Amino acid sequence: MISPLVSTDWLKSHLNDPNLIILDASMSENKSGKSSNLGDVQIINARFFDLKNSFSDKGNSLPNMLPEEASFTAACQDLGINADSLIIVCDNLGVYSSPRVWWMFKAMGHESVAVLDGGLPKWIEQGFPTEPIQKSTYSKGTFSAKFRPSMVKNAAQILKNIDQNVALVIDARSAGRFCGIEPEPRKDLKGGHIPGSLNLPFTEVLKDGQFLPKEDLKLIFENLQLKDRSLVFTCGSGLTACIILLASQLVQKNTTAVYDGSWTEWGQLNDVPIAT
Question: Distances in Å between the alpha carbon of 263 and those of 27, 62, 119?
C-alpha cells in the first residue's frame, strides 16, 4: 500500500508506470481566498478531477458532499480509472483540494491513492514536464466503488457524540471562525463551533504548499492529547478537514472520519448546540 503522501521526485521517477493515473483536482475558486496563476497548465498526462460537478452530490444543497457509490463509480470509469490504478492526486495550490480527493477514494474503498506533496507549483519549480490543459476522453475504466460508511459522519452522529463524547472532533477552520469572531464566508451561517471540538487550522500543518515534516506534525498532534480516541474532522464544507485528516494519518494511528456536512450544515441548523 502506498504512503498517503508522495514527493514530486517520486512521481517523476514513476511517470511511466503502466497503472499510474494522475488526477488534477484544482478548483477555479475556493472559500479560503487562495488563488493560483497556474490555471493553464497541468502535469503531463494529468486528468481533470471535477470535484465541484462530477464528484459532488448535486442533489444535495450542501457543497462538496460525497456522491453516492454508483455515481462515484461511473464518474471514475469515465476518467479511465481502473480497479488496479495507482492514483496520484495534485492541485495548483500545492496542497488544498487534493487531500479531499485522496480521502474520497479511501472512503470508496480504493487504497492505491496518494497526494502529491507540493502539487503543481512544486512540480513546475523543479522543471518537470507539463502540458497545456486540454479536454480528453478515455477508455471506460473498471473502477468499482465500495463505500466505507465508517469514514463519513452526519449531523445526527455528531449531535449524539456531544453527549457520549466518544470521538474527538477537530475543526480545520481559522481560529476566528472557530470562536465566532470572524464572519463565515457563506451567507446565513451562525458563528462558532461544535461543542467539545478542538481547533486545528489547516494552515498550521502546511508550509509553502507542502506538509510540515513528520516530526513537526507529530508534535502538533501530541499537543492535542488525542490518545487513542477516534477522530472526526470538520471544516467549512468538508474540504480542508481532509488536509488535517491526512496530516494526522502521517503520524497517528487513530481511526478517522469526516463530518461531510461540516459547518455549512451545522451552522444553519436550528436544533443543535453551538459554542463560541
Answer: 20, 10, 27
Q: Global pTM? A: 0.96
Q: For residue 41, count CB atoms less than 10 angstroms from its CB and return exposed for 0-12, middle for 13-18, buried for 19 or more.
A: middle
Looking at the structure, do residues 116 and 212 belong to the same domain, yes or no?
Answer: no
Instruction: Render each residue's pLDDT in the chain as its tens digit; 276 residues.
Output: 799 999 999 999 999 999 999 999 999 876 666 767 787 999 999 999 999 999 999 999 999 999 999 999 999 999 999 999 999 999 999 999 999 999 999 999 999 999 999 999 999 999 999 999 988 999 999 999 999 999 999 999 999 999 999 999 999 999 999 999 999 999 889 999 999 999 999 999 999 999 999 999 999 999 999 999 999 999 999 999 999 999 999 999 999 999 999 999 999 999 999 999
Whether residues 121 and 167 share a domain: the answer is no
Determine the residue type at 67: P
Same-domain status, 32 and 99:
yes
The residues assigned a catalytic role are: 235
Is residue 262, in this structure, part of any structural domain at all? yes
Domain boundary among 115, 147, 179: 147
